[in-house]
Design goal:
2 copies of one chain form a homodimer. Chain A is mostly helical. The structure holds a DNA duplex.
Amino acid sequence: MTGSERTCPIRGDGGRALRAVLDRIGTRWTLLVVATLDRGGLRFGELERRLPGISQRMLTLTLRNLERDGLVSRTAHPEVPPRVVYALTATGRSLIGPALALAGWAAEHAPDLEERRAAHEARETAAHDE
Amino acid sequence: MTGSERTCPIRGDGGRALRAVLDRIGTRWTLLVVATLDRGGLRFGELERRLPGISQRMLTLTLRNLERDGLVSRTAHPEVPPRVVYALTATGRSLIGPALALAGWAAEHAPDLEERRAAHEARETAAHDE
DNA sequence: CTGGATCCGCTCTGATACTG
DNA sequence: CAGTATCAGAGCGGATCCAG
C-alpha cells in the first residue's frame, strides 16, 4: 500500500519485526491458546482443561503476555466465586490466518522432518560406532 | 487432499506437529537464514556477512539443524582453502510461503504490539510508583 | 575459510505450595 | 475459581579460543 514493499518481509528490517512476533508465538503454549480461543471466549478453568499438560503458571503467563500485546482481552466479573473470561481481540483473530498457514506446512512436512532427522542421526551413530 | 482436513491444523494433534516446526523456526536465526538463502546458494562467509550479529557458533548450529531436517543442502568443495555452499532444498523453499505470511503479519502488527506493550508497562510502572 | 570446543549467563518451563 | 510466589532444571544463545 505504501509502494515500498520490495524488501522481503522476513529480512525487511533485519528480522526485528519477525523476531518480536516469534518471541511470542514461539513459546510453547501461545498458539495453542489462541487456537483454543478461536471459537469464542473461555474461562481460565476451561482453558486449563482444554490444554492438557499446561500448568497454571504457564497458562497465566501466556495469557498475560497475550493480553499485554493486545491479542487477548480479559474480562473479570466481580462475583463470587470469581469468573474471568478470556477472548481473542480483532488483532488476535488476525493472527490465526498466518498461524494456520504455518500449521498447515507443519502438518504436511512434520513426518518428513522427523524421518530425515532420524535417518541423519542413524547415520551419525553408525559413523561413530564404526 | 486426503479429505480429512476438518480438524484445525493448529490443535489437530494437540499441536505436536506445529511444535516440532516451531522448535526449529522459532530459534532466533533459522528463518533469517532460510530467507537469506532464498535467492540462491551462499558460502558460509557470505551468510555470516549477510546476517549482522550472528555468531559463527549459531550460524553453524542453525545450518546443521536445517541440514538435518532436509531444508538446506550442504556442498563442500574439496579445495584449499575450503569452500562450502549452502542452498535451500525443495522442502526448504516450500517453507518460505508460510513464513512470508507470518512475516507479513509481523510487519503489519509489530508496531501495534510494541505500542500496546509500552503502554501496558507504563501503566504498571505508574501503579508501582504510586 | 570453515568450523569445532568450551565457558557462561539468561530465559523458558514445570512442580509445588499458598492466597483472595 | 483464579491466580501468585518460589525453587530448580534444561536449553538457547553469545563470546572466545583453537584446529583442519
